[in-house]
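INFO  loader      accepted 1 record
INFO  loader      residues=58
INFO  predictor   begin
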Amino acid sequence: MMKIETYLTVRHVAKQLGLTEYRVRQLIREKQIRATKIKQWRIKPEDLDNFIKSRSNI
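INFO  predictor   done
INFO  writer      dumping tokens
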């Protein structure tokens, strides 16, 4: 089990991707980014990496 400190917040992910927090939450609702609700939405670093890889043209 991962410690909560290892999860990323919506704010952190939004800054990293250059998106708004609203857009990140929208992507979570659309199940494009996996997230867990722990008082607020939290994203595992590997789930963010998977999302980024799924969007790249490599």
